[in-house]
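wait is this the right file?? whatever heres the structure
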């Protein structure tokens, strides 16, 4: 009886933690991007990261990610460019204030701590689905997730055709998520 109680007391906290909802920490660089402009990479980032991440490496079918960033927080290091990107031709933040990512169908890749998911990205009311490969490293009270994917900005009506600005954007995620 004592042994059964001991095993129960040891295992219950593990199962409770495994089912916890994690919340992303809105840290600098958590959601960033790079795009070529006149042949040089232009870095940018977003703030206002919030949402829920359910991740258990032992129950991947129950794992999901539903997060958003505030489009108005776009930061490229040049205020005039930031204001331009917030306008109707690009992110139109007055009408579309958030960018969202909904991740489902998480699968183990076979590499340590590495997974893939189907990520539905919504920008300016347009949703597209992308494969997202990421790593998940256990941290105190959560996980550190890191991954990237590419998208075509014109698929989301961000800007128009340009000989100086590339169409392909690489989005990078470096997210600490905790209980």
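ok assuming it is, sequence goes like this
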């Amino acid at each position: 009886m004592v042994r059964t109680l001991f095993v129960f007391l040891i295992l219950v906290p593990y199962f409770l933690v495994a089912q916890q909802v994690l919340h992303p920490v809105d840290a600098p660089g958590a959601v960033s991007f790079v795009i070529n402009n006149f042949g040089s990479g232009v870095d940018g980032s977003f703030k206002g990261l919030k949402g829920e991440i359910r991740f258990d490496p032992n129950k991947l079918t129950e794992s999901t990610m539903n997060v958003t960033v505030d489009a108005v927080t776009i930061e490229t290091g040049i205020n005039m460019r930031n204001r331009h990107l917030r306008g109707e031709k690009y992110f139109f933040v007055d009408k579309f204030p958030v960018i969202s990512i909904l991740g489902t169908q998480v699968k183990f890749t076979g590499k340590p701590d590495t997974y893939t998911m189907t990520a539905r990205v919504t920008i300016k009311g347009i949703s597209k689905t992308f494969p997202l490969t990421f790593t998940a490293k256990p941290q105190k009270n959560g996980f550190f997730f890191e991954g990237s994917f590419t998208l075509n900005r014109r698929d989301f009506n961000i800007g128009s055709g340009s000989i100086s600005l590339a169409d392909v954007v690489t989005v990078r995620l470096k997210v600490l998520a905790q209980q």
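The CA atoms of residues 154 and 161 lie 8 Å apart. so i think its the right one actually
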